[in-house]
Amino acid sequence: MFPAVLIGLVVLVVLLALKGLKIIRQAEVMLVERLGKFHRQLEPGINIIWPFIDRPRQISWRMRVQGPRGAVTRTIQSATIDLREQVFDFPEQSVITRDNVVIEVNGLLYYQVTDPRRAVYEVANLPIAIEKLAQTTLRNIIGEMELDTTLSSRDEINSKMRTVLDDATDKWGVKVNRVELQDISPPHSVQDAMEKQMKAERDRRAVILESEGIKQSQVLRAQGERDAQ
Fold first, then answer.
1. Higher pLDDT residue, 1 or 149?
2. What are the pLDDT digits (tens) for 29-40?
3. Contact yes or no for 83/64 (Cβ under 8 A)
């Protein structure tokens, strides 16, 4: 009887030790709560916590995963916080320019968690908050531009978005490193009109060049006749 109890106690101690042993990978951290309150931050390497008293805090992450129909964006729960630079692909959305043209815009946002504690406790859902903030910021910036300016000012839009997002996410312990617009797609009717305008401009330039060539040829011929006389 006594050996069986002893073996059971040993097994229980081993299980508790394994449950309290946390191995954190490089470039990741884990936030531990003790009885529901933030206790400490686990750094990369071997860490020991008290089982059932200390619990890792879960956080949501937006990840691009490969599905049966291609890459899709999903929200997953993780106990560790990745400190590496993350790439966030915010979906295509409709934006109205100042001259009332509806365009489709999508882009990439590169950010990095600099303060894990604020990233968890200062915002309810970090990926969704960044997505909504990026969408509203993009609407505000493009809403102040006309279509022609929007199509030719990607660098300016990227710079403005990065500045606004970096300031807004600083409270969440996040650093926005850069923003890149991938596609700006006007409606098909506007694209057709732009193509016709470009064709008309090319035709106009061709006519001007041809007229200037004829004029220069006539001037040179007249000068040659005059010199011959």
1. 149
2. 999 999 889 999
3. no
CB distance 97 to 145 below 8 Å = yes
The mean pLDDT of 195-208, rounded to a whole number, is 66
Sequence-ordered list of residues with C-beta below 8 angstroms from that of 45, at least 6 positions apart, any chain = 23, 24
Give 93-105 pLDDT, tens digit per residue: 888 888 888 888 9
Confidence class for position 44, pLDDT limits 50, 70, 90: very high
Does residue 103 contact residue 97 with C-beta atoms inside 8 Å? yes
Distance CA 166, CA 109 (A): 11
* Rounded CA separation 227/76 (Å): 86
First to last CA, the chain: 135
Please count the CA atoms within 13 angstroms of the CA of 174 that sit on its side-chain side: 31
Q: Exposure of 209 by Cβ count < 10 A (0-12 exposed, 13-18 middle, 19+ buried)?
A: exposed
Q: Where do runs of H (alpha helix) occur along the chain? A: 2-20, 116-121, 126-142, 147-151, 154-169, 188-228
Q: Any idea which of 17-21, 118-122, 138-142, 155-159 has the lowest mean pLDDT?
A: 17-21
Instruction: Assess whether pLDDT exceeds 60 at residue 172.
Output: yes
Task: Write the DSSP string, 114-161.
Answer: S-HHHHHHS-S-HHHHHHHHHHHHHHHHHTTS-HHHHHT-HHHHHHHH
CA–CA gap between residue 181 and residue 141 (Å, rounded): 13
- Report the distance separating Cα 61 and Cα 4, nearest Å: 46
